[in-house]
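Subject: two folds for Thursday's group meeting

Dear M.,

Sorry for the delay on this. The cluster queue was jammed most of the week, so I only got both jobs back this morning. I'm pasting them in the order they finished. Each block is the input sequence followed by the predicted structure tokens. Could you check whether the formatting survives your parser before we put anything on slides? The first protein is the one we discussed after the seminar.
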Amino acid sequence: MGGAISLLAVNFIIAQIFTAAFLTIAAKSRQRRAAVWCASGFAVASLSAVFEAIVPFSPTPRFFAIAAFASVLGGFCLLRFGLGLFYQVPVRWSVLGACFAAGVALDVAIFDLPRGTWQHSFFYQMPFVLIQAWTASVVVRSARRSFFDWLLFSLLALSAAYYFMKIYAAVAIGAGATAQDYVLSNFALVSQALGAMLIVGAGLAMLGVMVKDIVDDAQARSEIDLLSALYNRRGFMDRVMPLLHARQSQTPGTLILADLDRFKLVNDTYGHLTGDEVIRRFARVLMDVMPNRAVAGRLGGEEFAVFLPCTELSEARVVAHGMRAAIMSQQIPGLPEAARVTSSFGVAAVGQGETLDLVMQRADRALYAAKENGRNRVECAEPADTIVNPAVHHWIGRP
């Protein structure tokens, strides 16, 4: 009995540690609700260790044995709900509650069946098999495919297989004739030991996917310009560089640089709040007009960039004209009703073997020409092969 009780205590402590860990994650993650429900799942499931430890010493073992079953099943249901929120594969409470109630009702119905028989073992373990398999399916149905996601799926599937194998093990090894005998059985030792291993593995995998989500979210925030909600310079460069290296067509792509005309005058005349609204509205225009596969960023101040992969110069020029016309049609709060914001564009197609820095230089020269030629226009850069010496800077800034 001492060995099984010790393992029950270990499982209880492990579950409490994971409860605390998920509550800590909840304080840091944007997936706060999911983490809280997972913490609740471990907390509820841990109660089974307490109930099972009481069974051998209680004059009413039926109550505590059923309570142990219900706490494990309830904990698994809460984990299904929490992971459903995290993976955006939700389940209605009515469905989950019905599954829980059906499982507990089944345990009550079979309680007096002889233990160690196929009938009792099958109906006792199947609710756990089904809820674990259902939870594993959540990972597959989601769009996430990181290492930790696959690890979590594997461990949940393994957990479902473990409970299925317990149907045979309970009969082959012997689970005791009564609920009170269970803690004395070899089956209890094996079951609690393997259960502890699966709890640790699945718990660590769940923590892994949530910690990765926090890290990815922090990285995304560091690469997003808060005012425009576009990529900042770093985020833009990091997204475009792989597209240049993975050239799968004769047309690597085209870069559009855009600059709001006389933006300093807007700030000086109408205030920075109005200037901020102009930035936000222009960013929205870029997102609305550019193709879905394009990448947009705010390089700084009033300068923006859009990269269109596998796009000819002529197509990109049409896109730039669409952006120019779209911002002119905007009525922006804070500006006079008749006032319209204009913008200038420089467009350059990426030459074969050309680096992003070089194509940005050529697009910037085209943008400079658009400013010099009267603003509110689109200018295209010369082909890349006309550059005499790209290492020499032939220009310094622009007005």
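Second protein, same layout:
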Amino acid sequence: MLRAVRLAGPGREHLADNEPVDLLLAGGRIADIAPTGALTAPTDVLDGHGAWAVPGLWDNHVHTVQWALAAEREALGDAGSAAEAAARMRAVAPLPDGRRVGGGYRDALWPDDPSLALLDAATGDVPTYLINADVHSVWMNSAALRREGFPGDDGILREEDAFEISRRLNAVDPEHGDRAVLRAGERAASRGVTGLVDFDMAWNADAWPRRVAAGFAAHRVEFAVYPFDLARAVEAGLRTGDVREPEDAPAAARGLIRVGPLKVISDGSLGTRTAACSHAYPGDPGNFGVLSVPRDELIELLTRATGAGLSVAVHAIGDRAASSALDAFAITGAHGSIEHAQLVRQSDLARFARSGVVASVQPQHALDDRDLAGMLWDGQDGVGYPLASLVAAGVELRFGSDAPVAPLDPWQAISAAVARTDDSRPPWHPEERLSLDAALRASVRTSLRPGEPADIALCAADPRTADGAQLRAMPVVATVLAGRLTHLS
């Protein structure tokens, strides 16, 4: 039983007042809700002392291993120039595999350009890798390029070449990677997370059962497959929603791991200036971004996935990419989501709703990118980082972080959606702000009602009265997954 808690998320609309209630949990579900003291208490009781309960939070876009390993890499998000970033990498101790790795920078905001000569001068013969915050480009020195077997006149690898480098950097010893994921799962639970969608570029169908066997039981997981593994997934009989776990999975972990969607990356990113847009990027009249998966190929992929029982998640950041993705969903009848949707044509807002495609968005990106968007997308006609516009059109939203691009913390996403600012500046495009209730709905998969899964986060403050800064720092006192505590502060 969760004793004396107040409901602050979906489900509270069924209560007559805001007085504390008791939640009786049984069989992994909410069995009953009644005024405090009205139910016979079981032997296992957690007294909430009036804490506010919301359904367990989801992060619907995570690169799990890369996020887990980020703690071992040099954080460069505050580097003010290419020269500063290169100089800082000089002092970074190589990892056990001999590589120096940093990440999180945004070179489009730097006054100087990253170059091979600059990084070589600072880092010498130690293979050195700097991963852009958007993960769509990697800055490498000559030693790293030689080690990986890539040419690179300017030291920058972009798009598919950059993804390949990330795959190699993330392919650490499985025991090492699994330990990092176990620790990361504990951190996620401490922020009220009870589920995530894993978009790691790896064969996750074996990795997650292995982690369960090693003790992972922190949250639910839906894992993606990529086009390079689509044939393998079809041959293995993977279908979206199916449970994937070892036969001897511990009781606490049963049913947590499920097959997710086919992930297709159809264009680039804003920071790398490769998101496919209607108008050219400033100062580069021939650059409209890249459609890395042409329309006909995208239709073919969605057709194959749908026939095999897989939903589809299409990465589309620019407005041209979003239109192409919506075309493919309409033609194939596929189900799934468009990931990011950072620039959307006005005419496509209603198409989102008619198609039933989910908009899987990362509200923190709007704040992290507001300066970049002002520089690079000022001449675009589409709606930038839409939230309220999508909701008004009747589109289902799901929130995520794209960790490690942004921190895996649903409260940051909720705050960004509600406040549209995370510093002293006024809200950015305040017309796209959401209500707290709408932001919470986009962050959960369940509600606080009898019969629903007992996935619950208890907060020390009332989210309904919190401002943006308070939401961002929301104290989570306990997290419950299927009726089992995964975090208690």
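Two things I noticed about the second structure. The chain has a mean pLDDT of 96. The two ends are 17 Å apart (CA to CA).

Cheers,
T.
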